[in-house]
Description:
287 residues; alpha/beta; Metallo-beta-lactamase, Chain A; 7-stranded mixed sheet; 14 strands; 28% helix; globular
Amino acid sequence: MSDTRVTLTGTGVPHAVPGRAGAGVLVQYKDVTLQFDAGRATVLRLIEAGVTPRDLSAVFITHYHSDHVVDLVDVVLTRWVEQNVKKTGPLRIVVPEGHAARFVSRMMEPYDDDLHVRQEHTGAEDLKIDAISFAPKTTPTEVWRSEDGAVVVEAVLVHHEPVEGAVAYRITTPDGSVVISGDTRVCDEVFSMAADSDLLIHEACRTQALTKFSKGTPFENIFDYHSDSIVLGEFAQKYNIKHLLLTHLIPSPATEKDAQRFEADVRAGGFTGKLTVGADLHSVEIG
């Protein structure tokens, strides 16, 4: 039996739809509990997955787009409020240098009055965040390690231009490894890091299928910096990916038939391996 469990806490995109929270992935190994990105309703999905913000060992941010960070404040505030149940100390947030780190440094400012009155009324301790920033590189670089060394997180720079400093993460435990693409065009950096991993969680956009619809609209530019689902299948086959789990689905599937279209695209790209079209709270054991 594996001690490593990966759960999708959100498979949605900026356009909100029922049943799909904002971007997020939960990785658990024994007592190590890591959250990657925190899109809308992340806290609710964590609770549904049996985890509270006070259980988190660290949060990792892939980039500063709002649909990946809008619920980060809720994670921090809920953890702070829960301190009267269990003292856990500051939440560690690991974030790429630049715009994403700047967001984290400023995100609590609008809540100054709320924090002040709660502290005066309840005697709560100061809210503290342990933010750690790193310089993204084009080759995988370690950015975090658990105290016992059992869990290691690496990051690599990806191609989400014009967004600067977007990264993918690889999490390695004694059971195996999982790679989380974040938002990116299909690129060798992600797939090279995922080539020997047990699971690749990758965003998917039905770019080619929607070309006629998107041409001349803002969606044409939006689709430009996401991962075409057919090209995704080509790369997954080329790099012999063991299990491809799709998330951040553009457009968000409203029916089972819609979800099957993503699978058909990836298969059309040539991928013959294990493939799952993600849904919120879908869970996979590693190893």
